[in-house]
């Protein structure tokens, strides 16, 4: 099978992933954001932070959202350090974040050894306008490489701006990313290479990787979301099998 899903804590699972064994790290960690005060950040669940009162869905909470600002920076650095070790030379790291955690994420990426290469934006057209404020309509993808960029490994020209709504119909995770955005991003990994996502959630990065002909290694702490990811990954493989085999005569 071109994917492996580890159930458990990302730092623990990463320690078992061999050096230089993946081609790109593409991940969407818990942002530990979503509040103006330390109390709001550390005392509220992911559901309370990222689901508005009028949201129609009733999606399960997820863990890992209660670190204060300093410990979030240390923890993300550890995660990105282990990910760096597991990645081949010239491999890429793409890490999602929001406006509040953008400075911490760029610091953590560099402290972990990656060469910071830039920031791409994911623009969400249906985000809510806020009276007297600028609309928060983007999340960000901080990216870097392990050593020099090797343009011949991944000869792609990827955009720096992605516009797509968060999945509404068939949404299974509170902070689910659009597959169409992830399908573009996984192209930073060479065809046939392996994408690592230590915070798999519902498996969107993995689904995108499999659909684009890349392998996938994921880690997810929540049993609930690991079950969903497993189902979605199997589904993506089945579709690929169908596409390879072609329709029956
Ligand atoms: C922002 S969500 C990822 C959502 C994903 N991109 C998707 O489209 O479904 C982060 C995920 O990390 C998981 N998580 C939190 N702490 C973790 C840890 N220490 N190890 C592994 N996974 C963890 C959460 O359960 C959550 O599902």
Structural summary, described in words:
The chain is an alpha/beta fold. It has a single domain, classed as Rossmann fold. 33% of the residues lie in helices and 21% in strands. It has an eight-stranded mixed β-sheet with strand order 1-8-7-2-3-5-4-6, sandwiched between helices. Helix 4 crosses helix 5, helix 6 crosses helix 7 and helix 7 packs parallel to helix 8. It is globular. The two termini are 27 Å apart. Bound molecules: S-adenosylmethionine. S-adenosylmethionine binds next to strand 8.
Query: How confident overall, as mean pLDDT?
Result: 91
Specify the CATH class: Alpha Beta
Q: If helices are DSSP runs of H or I spanning 4 or more residues, what is the number of helices? A: 8
CATH architecture: 3-Layer(aba) Sandwich
Order of helices and strands: EHEHHHEHEEEHEHEH
Structure summary, number of beta strands? 8
Unreliable sequence segments = 243-249
Question: What compounds sit in this structure?
Answer: S-adenosylmethionine
Oligomer: single chain
Question: What's this model, at a glance?
Answer:
By secondary structure, the chain is of the alpha/beta class. The chain contains 8 helices and 8 strands; from the N terminus they run E-H-E-H-H-H-E-H-E-E-E-H-E-H-E-H. Helix 7 (204-211) links the parallel strand 7 (194-197) and strand 8.
């Amino acid at each position: 099978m071109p994917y492996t899903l580890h159930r458990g804590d990302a730092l623990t699972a990463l320690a078992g992933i061999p050096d230089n064994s993946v081609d790109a790290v593409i991940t969407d960690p818990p942002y530990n954001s979503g509040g103006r005060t330390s109390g709001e950040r550390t005392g509220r669940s992911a559901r309370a932070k990222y689901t508005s009162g009028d949201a129609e869905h009733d999606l399960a909470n997820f863990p890992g959202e209660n670190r204060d600002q300093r410990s979030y920076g240390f923890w993300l650095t550890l995660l990105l350090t282990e990910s760096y070790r597991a990645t081949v030379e010239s491999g890429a790291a793409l890490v999602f974040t929001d406006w509040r955690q953008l400075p911490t994420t760029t610091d953590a990426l560099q402290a972990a050894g990656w060469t910071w290469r830039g920031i791409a934006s994911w623009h969400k057209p249906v985000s809510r306008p806020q009276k007297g404020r600028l609309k928060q309509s983007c999340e960000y993808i901080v990216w870097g490489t392990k050593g020099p960029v090797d343009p011949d490994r991944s000869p792609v020209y990827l955009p720096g701006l992605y516009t797509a709504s968060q999945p509404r119909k068939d949404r299974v995770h509170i902070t689910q990313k659009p597959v169409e955005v992830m399908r573009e991003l996984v192209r930073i990994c060479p065809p046939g290479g392996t994408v690592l996502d230590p915070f798999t959630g519902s498996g969107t990065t993995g689904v995108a990787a499999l659909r684009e002909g890349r392998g996938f290694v994921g880690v997810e702490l929540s049993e609930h979301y690991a079950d969903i990811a497993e189902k979605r990954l199997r589904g993506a493989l089945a579709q690929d099998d169908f596409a390879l085999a072609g329709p029956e005569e």
